[in-house]
Write a structure and sequence with these properties.
4-stranded antiparallel sheet, 4 helices, putative n-type atp pyrophosphatase, domain 2, two-stranded parallel ribbon, globular, alpha+beta, 2 domains, 6 strands
Length: 145
């Protein structure tokens, strides 16, 4: 049994709104006699995003595919000001603020758990007029001190 092989009791997943994901995690865990924890489940998008900024998570937007999110967001670090701009756009264009509907994807470059933050040295962007992607070509770790 995998539970014994890997010495695990369960999993923690970060799903917030996707019932499909939550149900699949629950099904797999039930089949393997594992606990499943969903600490972010049903968290309000604005509360969740505010908490990330408050807790010093630094993340960039790595792809966009929603009205209101243009190529200027690709590779942008989301801080308090950026989050304020996203909230305005979310109200206007009605996308999910924490991107649970696939409106965008993010990539964490620093957070309280990291010993070192990620510094992006080289990147490229692709934009087709509606959706785009930010690709990290070269990065290095830097001290968080």
């Amino acid at each position: 049994m995998q539970k014994k092989k890997y010495s695990i009791e369960g999993i923690v997943h970060g799903g917030i709104l996707s019932k499909y994901q939550k149900d699949n995690f629950s099904l797999i865990c039930a089949k393997n006699n594992l606990e499943v924890l969903s600490p972010l489940w049903d968290t309000k998008p604005e509360s969740y995003m505010d908490e990330l900024v408050k807790e010093n998570f630094q993340y960039i937007i790595s792809s966009v595919s929603s009205d209101g999110l243009n190529d200027s967001w690709l590779g942008k670090i989301i801080d308090k000001n950026g989050l304020g701009d996203l909230k305005k756009l979310q109200k206007q264009f009605r996308f999910n603020l924490n991107f649970e509907g696939g409106e965008a994807e993010t990539f964490v470059i620093n957070c309280p758990l990291f010993e070192k933050s990620l510094f992006i040295q080289d990147s490229s962007t692709e934009w087709d007029g509606y959706r785009g992607r930010f690709e990290i070509l070269e990065a290095k770790l830097k001290d968080n001190a």
